[in-house]
Automatic annotation (TrEMBL), chain A:
<feature type="transmembrane region" description="Helical">
    <location>
        <begin position="33"/>
        <end position="57"/>
    </location>
</feature>
<dbReference type="InterPro" id="IPR000515">
    <property type="entry name" value="MetI-like"/>
</dbReference>
<feature type="transmembrane region" description="Helical">
    <location>
        <begin position="181"/>
        <end position="201"/>
    </location>
</feature>
<feature type="transmembrane region" description="Helical">
    <location>
        <begin position="97"/>
        <end position="117"/>
    </location>
</feature>
<feature type="transmembrane region" description="Helical">
    <location>
        <begin position="231"/>
        <end position="251"/>
    </location>
</feature>
<feature type="transmembrane region" description="Helical">
    <location>
        <begin position="129"/>
        <end position="149"/>
    </location>
</feature>
<feature type="domain" description="ABC transmembrane type-1">
    <location>
        <begin position="92"/>
        <end position="305"/>
    </location>
</feature>
<dbReference type="InterPro" id="IPR035906">
    <property type="entry name" value="MetI-like_sf"/>
</dbReference>
<dbReference type="InterPro" id="IPR051393">
    <property type="entry name" value="ABC_transporter_permease"/>
</dbReference>
Automatic annotation (TrEMBL), chain C:
<keyword id="KW-0472">Membrane</keyword>
<dbReference type="InterPro" id="IPR006059">
    <property type="entry name" value="SBP"/>
</dbReference>
<dbReference type="Pfam" id="PF01547">
    <property type="entry name" value="SBP_bac_1"/>
</dbReference>
<keyword id="KW-0732">Signal</keyword>
<protein>
    <recommendedName>
        <fullName>Sugar ABC transporter substrate-binding protein</fullName>
    </recommendedName>
</protein>
<feature type="region of interest" description="Disordered">
    <location>
        <begin position="24"/>
        <end position="43"/>
    </location>
</feature>
<dbReference type="InterPro" id="IPR050490">
    <property type="entry name" value="Bact_solute-bd_prot1"/>
</dbReference>
<keyword id="KW-0564">Palmitate</keyword>
<keyword id="KW-1003">Cell membrane</keyword>
Length: 317, 110, 466
């Protein structure tokens, strides 16, 4: 940034002026460049050392047979070929996608919460706190807690269902219910965070817009779809993007609640499978290939999202 | 979206009342604050409070359950042994993440 | 605006790909790590391990006297149990291998091939080895050439051995008027089911069962029964998966039938859940595993509820009278880095940690483990120290498991345990009766075999690459 400012300034002058000025300030400029470089160096070097190099390294590793300890053996695309024939990879990918259905559910619930809590409701501070508590709790502790809550024999969930005369399943041990059970837990855990962001966005919408719309005869639903929803769109976008990226990396809950990948591999996420391959089964090269495929998938999805967001840009003057 | 649909019914009614039949309504002082078009209906708020309360119970229940069971010591409560978290020597995360039983020992003595 | 978006895209990309980068280089969590690198000065050592407070206490004392004896200066690095393996791998990747560290037998082969572990054969006296459990020593032998475990050079010494024993609720047996099982002669499967059926009753007469014969987790308990019936997961040379053997299927079916047919276990799908651990301690389960790391907890429960819970150790049941009982025995080892600058001293420390009498006394007294050294375990400990510290009456069974009949869990002696994990993926179908054990075993065997073959070919590759 510092380097472009003088350039812009000189373009308005005559060439001579510019040349004179440049000469006059040459020393000063050089000094500035040095300082600029000095300030830029740490992040750039850090980026190269901690991001570019590891990334390049992992791309290389994905083309090798490597146990993470010894030397690497170049095997070309073999890892990728194996990957696409590995039923567990596809199963894990499907499971990871399945967990994403928690995102729209969570966003809808948290927007509803934010709308309700932005009203003058008695005890709203209390409610905001209660809904936010799971967010600040440790994920590992929460996972252990829910593992017990889902226990088929005496878990809280089935105790509550029993009050209504329902015999609950053994949630985490049944291939049909294991994934939904995890989704419920994730929504529960993430609700407060989205709620707080939405709350800020909802409260930032100028009241005058609602007043004007109301005077024009817009009903509450219209006001929601035409004012609130577009106005909180940046937050929605942010939450969708970060939730998809976060959701694609889901690991801790899986590893704690279903440490073997669930009955019939029903809960294993991709990152869990990557971890399992890399650190338990000494197939670091294969695991890296899998991680790269996941990274590229997330990248593609994110780019699509940014495109869509641009197409639907909403601005207000 | 029960939140918004419920306001949809009530808010316009309030607006009609406020504007009345007069084509050029006299704007009373404090109109926008006190009787604004988006004034909140107490009934809706009461309804929302009830829903929020139910939600709050659901949100807090697992945490409260954990606290309550960890306070009980007698038989009949299977959830948590007194040592704290229910880390069973074999079959929990640390153990099953590596079949070698050594991890069991580590978590068993934790 | 455009530029902002480009920046945002870039940031998102970076975020998404950091994941990929992390898994490749382990650099992600390097920042907050303690320095694990080995000592530089001739008397400096680092020791990286994991464990509970008593491990730490015992080793602090052992190391203090080691330092006094040898003039060494030892830095201890303790990590969380579930992070240890990843941290060690990161330390190795970063060329910061500690001088002395824990190693699991099941993970050792990769490390040996990568020349991470020092060959301790010439550093340890034979009479020292003779006094340690054979299993505990053999577990750290590995022959690089043939890829066979339990033979060849020595790459570590046991921190401990962990026998997974079986037990019963003494109080319940007494109440029900059932004769206590013999502490040395194993029950047969039929006798076991018979007793379990007697124990499975409704004690308070409310029409619902509230006491059961047993309730066992398939992943940690079926081994003993399968072995006790002559089956196994893998052939002796570790090259063939043998789950399709009829004896195996029969034993597994018997295990599943404890719930499906005999109904001597509680609840819906109890064999997979952990519920029974709590029920056992609440005095509702007759037979349940007992291992050294359980003793402290069980003793506390027994003390608090003496009228419902008491326990003792017995051998696991066997298929037919006269068969040999079996169960698994684990171990955690202490290894020395090949790159250590003070290998001799480091090897001495490993021996010290493994066999120092005072440290062993602390660990045994606090019910962390049974002693490592045979003469103490069979002598003073079993005679006086163990009873005094509250170990159960038949603690000797633990010693017999360690000394005579304990086996490693399947997968321990192979390069990677993926083939063994494969077995458990669909096991719920057997336990819920959707599939017979024989059908399941036949279906899963080829997949297991191909993963085992992969492990062997990866081992070959690791050997070639060094």
């Amino acid at each position: 940034m510092a380097t472009t400012a003088p350039e812009q300034a000189t373009s308005r002058w005559t060439k001579e002026d510019a040349r004179a000025a440049r000469k006059r300030n040459a020393k000063l400029h050089r000094k500035e460049y040095v300082w600029a470089a000095a300030f830029l160096a740490p992040p750039v070097i850090g980026w190269i050392a901690f991001l570019l190099f590891p990334m390049a390294f992992s791309v290389y590793a994905s083309f090798t047979n490597w146990n993470g300890l010894g030397a690497m053996q170049w095997i070309g695309l073999q890892n990728y070929v194996n990957l696409f024939q590995d039923p567990y990879f596809w199963k894990a990918l499907w499971n990871t996608l399945f967990y994403m259905i928690g995102i729209p559910i969570g966003l809808a619930l948290s927007l509803g919460l934010a709308l309700a809590l932005s009203r003058k409701i008695r005890g709203r501070t209390f409610f905001r706190t209660v809904y936010y508590i799971p967010v600040i709790s440790s994920l590992a502790a929460i996972a252990i807690l829910w593992q017990w809550a889902y226990n088929g024999d005496f878990g809280l969930v089935n105790q509550v269902l029993a009050l209504f005369g329902i015999q609950g399943p053994n949630w985490l041990m049944d291939p049909v219910t294991a994934k939904p059970a995890l989704v419920i837990m994730m929504v529960w855990k993430g609700l407060g965070y989205s709620m707080i962001l939405y709350l800020a966005a909802v409260q930032a919408v100028p009241r005058s817009l609602y007043e004007a719309a109301a005077l024009d005869g817009a009903n509450a639903w219209k006001r929601f779809t035409k004012i609130t929803w577009p106005m909180v769109r940046p937050v929605t976008f942010f939450l969708v993007v970060t939730n998809i990226i976060g959701g694609s990396m889901i690991f801790t809950e899986i590893n704690i609640m279903t440490p073997t990948g669930g009955p019939q591999w029903s809960t294993a996420s991709l990152v869990w499978y990557v971890w399992n391959k890399a650190f338990r089964n000494l197939q670091m090269g294969y695991a890296t290939a899998m991680a790269l495929v996941l990274g590229i998938l997330v990248l593609i999805v994110t780019i699509i999202q940014f495109r869509l967001n641009r197409a639907n840009n909403f601005s207000i003057d | 979206m029960s939140v918004t649909s419920s306001t949809a019914k009530t808010a316009p009614a309030a607006m009609v009342k406020a504007t009345g039949g007069d084509p050029r309504p006299a704007i009373a002082p404090g109109f926008f604050k006190a009787k604004g078009a988006t004034r909140e209906n107490p009934l809706v708020n009461a309804f929302l409070t009830a829903i929020l309360a139910v939600g709050a119970v659901i949100m807090a229940a697992p945490l409260l359950w954990m606290v309550s069971t960890s306070l009980k010591t007698k038989e009949g409560v299977y959830a948590l042994p007194r040592s704290g978290f229910p880390i069973r020597s074999c079959g929990t995360r640390t153990c099953a993440s590596s079949t070698t039983p050594t991890c069991c020992r580590a978590s068993g003595t934790r | 605006m455009r530029r902002m978006k480009a920046a945002a895209v870039a940031a998102t990309m970076a975020g998404a790909l950091t994941l990929a980068a992390c898994s490749g280089s382990s650099s992600g969590n390097a920042s907050e790590e303690p320095d694990t690198s080995g000592g530089d000065a001739p008397n400096e050592l680092t020791f990286m391990f994991r464990g509970g407070e008593y491990d730490k206490l015992a080793y602090e004392q052992a190391i203090a006297s080691f330092e006094e004896e040898t003039g060494a200066s030892v830095t201890m690095i303790i990590t969380d149990a579930d992070q240890y393996a990843t941290k060690l791998q990161a330390a190795i990747a970063g060329n910061k291998v500690p001088d002395v560290f824990y190693i699991e037998p099941g993970r050792m082969q990769g490390y040996v091939y990568a020349n991470v572990l020092a060959d301790l054969t010439s550093y340890v006296e034979q009479d020292v080895l003779d006094n340690i459990w054979d299993f505990g020593v053999e577990a750290y032998r590995f022959d690089k050439e043939t890829g066979q475990a339990r033979t060849g050079p020595l790459y570590g010494l046991p921190k401990d051995v962990g026998p997974f024993g079986f037990g019963y609720n003494t109080v319940m047996f007494e109440k029900m008027g059932i004769e206590a099982p013999d502490p040395d002669v194993p029950l047969t499967f039929d006798e076991f089911v018979d007793i379990a059926k007697q124990l499975t009753t409704d004690t308070d007469g409310d029409g619902e069962l509230d006491q059961w014969g047993t309730g066992l987790n398939v992943q940690w308990n079926s081994q003993a029964f399968v072995w006790g019936a002559g089956g196994d997961w893998i052939s002796e040379d570790q090259k063939t998966v043998t789950v399709d053997d009829p004896a195996f299927a029969e034993a597994l079916q018997w295990f599943a039938d404890l719930q499906l047919v005999e109904q001597v276990t509680p609840s819906v799908e109890p064999a997979q859940t952990l519920d029974t651990y709590q029920r056992w301690m609440a005095g509702e389960i007759g037979f349940f595993p007992v291992a050294p790391w359980d003793i402290a907890t069980y003793n506390a429960v027994a003390e608090e509820n003496p009228d419902t819970f008491g326990y003792d150790v017995i051998p696991y049941p066997v298929a037919n009278a006269g068969d040999e009982t079996a169960t698994w025995l684990g171990s955690l080892g202490i290894a020395v880095a090949e790159t250590s600058k003070n290998k001799d001293l480091a090897a001495q420390l490993a021996v010290y940690l493994s066999t120092d009498l005072e440290a062993q006394k602390i660990l045994a007294e606090n019910k962390v483990q049974i002693p490592n050294i045979k003469d103490y375990a069979f002598g003073e400990w079993i005679e006086t120290d163990a009873p005094a510290a509250g170990w159960p009456a038949n603690t000797e069974e633990f010693l017999q498991i360690a000394d005579e009949y304990g086996r490693a869990l399947p997968g321990t002696w192979t390069y990677a345990p993926e083939w063994y994990d494969e077995f458990w993926v669909g096991i719920d179908q057997v336990l819920t009766g959707q599939m017979t054990a024989a059908d399941y075993a036949a279906q899963v065997q080829p997949n297991m075999q191909s993963k085992l073959d992969l492990a062997w070919s990866n081992a070959e590759q690791a050997k070639a690459q060094g």
